[in-house]
Write a structure and sequence with these properties.
Distance between the termini: 14 Å
Order of helices and strands: EEHHEEH
Largest sheet: 4 strands, mixed
Number of strands: 4
Mean pLDDT: 91
Length: 90
């Protein structure tokens, strides 16, 4: 999983349920257009990835299964990235 502007992370399968729950919160904030809640939800999702994952070596050129927006991404930009299942398909 890649966070734009930060790098790639190896996320264990055991963390996906928690990350999907955080992603659901982000989707809700985007759908309601609540900018403050969006900022918090995006921060929580990215923090969850950082806390549960191992940073991938920066010199490795492996493709990322998922790409998450960086912390400075706007609500409108994330709205354009969202699929039917959020940022993290579950």
């Amino acid at each position: 999983m890649r966070i734009l502007g930060e790098g790639q992370f190896d996320v264990p399968d055991a963390a996906l349920d928690e990350l999907n729950a955080l992603d659901d919160g982000l989707v809700d904030a985007v759908e309601t257009g609540d900018v403050d809640r969006f900022s918090v939800a995006l921060g929580q999702l990215l923090a969850g990835v950082r806390a549960s994952a191992t940073p991938h070596p920066p010199d490795a050129l492996d493709p990322s299964d998922l790409v998450l927006p960086g912390p400075d991404t706007t609500l409108d930009e994330v709205r354009e990235l969202l699929g039917d299942e959020g940022l993290i398909p579950g």
